[in-house]
């Protein structure tokens, strides 16, 4: 629908909005009637639906190489003792793996 001149008052915008809403509701109702009768073809139904988004194809990249370890990095886990299970008290595993 082409709007010859846009409203300049709030009341005019209300009227235009109501008119457009009625047209939209009428089109939806007609679409349901035709679909119930089998009157719409696949092409016509596709025109009513929003276009499906296609996933973008990305260029293949080789797997990233792990970063080289810093030889001067702090060994923070060295200060901890071995893992001890809370269930059985043995070292080397956690309670969830007991």
From TrEMBL:
Gene3D superfamilies recorded: Zinc finger, CCHC-type
Top-level taxon of origin: Eukaryota
Ranges of compositional bias, category Polar residues: 40-60
Region (Disordered) location: 40-82
Key words, A-Z: Metal-binding, mRNA processing, Zinc, Zinc-finger
Family matches, as InterPro entries: Znf_CCHC (IPR001878), Znf_CCHC_sf (IPR036875)
MF (Gene Ontology): nucleic acid binding; zinc ion binding
Residue ranges annotated for the CCHC-type domain, each copy included: 84-98
GO biological process: mRNA processing
Cited PROSITE patterns: ZF_CCHC
Name assigned to this protein: CCHC-type domain-containing protein
Organism: Amanita thiersii Skay4041
């Amino acid at each position: 629908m082409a709007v010859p001149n846009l409203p300049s008052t709030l009341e005019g915008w209300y009227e235009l909005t109501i008119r457009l809403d009625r047209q939209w509701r009428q089109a939806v109702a007609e679409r349901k009637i035709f679909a119930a009768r089998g009157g719409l073809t696949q092409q016509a139904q596709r025109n009513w639906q929003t276009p499906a988004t296609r996933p973008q194809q990305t260029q293949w990249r080789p797997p990233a190489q792990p970063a080289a370890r810093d030889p001067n990095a702090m060994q923070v886990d060295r200060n901890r003792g071995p893992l001890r299970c809370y269930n059985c008290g043995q070292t080397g595993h956690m309670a969830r793996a007991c």
